[in-house]
Design brief:
Helices cover 0% and strands 52% of the residues.
Length: 124
């Protein structure tokens, strides 16, 4: 059974930083694997934040570019999201996702596996 497990969420003031982590269990990582972070706030659709591809390439949503950094520890098969200069609009539930043969990277429908999410709250 495949499981993705996020951790690292919390509450911070605007301008602060958080680091999210996503561990995987039961998932076979391959050269076709892509992983990504998505987020969803109440009343809004889930949106792609950052994606990592097995060739090492990354992709970011415009709203987080320059502030967030996605990375993967291949030895541990964990995905991280370093979030700096956080803003109140970054407040959301953050989800980790994994899949193979991902084309668009930041589209929810392409990913097969999802974690339960970790809450990030940024206050003024």
């Amino acid at each position: 059974q495949v499981q993705l497990m996020e951790s690292g969420g919390g509450s911070v003031e605007a301008g602060g930083s958080l680091r999210l982590s996503c561990g995987t269990s039961g998932y076979t990582h391959s050269r076709y694997t892509s992983m990504a972070w998505f987020r969803q706030s109440p009343g809004r659709e889930r949106e792609g934040v950052a994606a990592w591809d097995s060739d090492g390439s990354t992709k970011y949503a415009g709203s987080v570019k320059g502030r967030f950094t996605i990375s993967k520890d291949n030895a541990k098969n964990t995905l991280a999201l370093q979030m700096n200069s956080l803003k109140p609009e970054d407040t959301a539930m953050y989800y980790c996702a994994a899949g193979e043969y991902i084309a668009s990277k930041l589209e929810t429908y392409e990913y097969n596996y999802w974690g339960q999410g970790t809450q990030v709250t940024v206050s003024l």
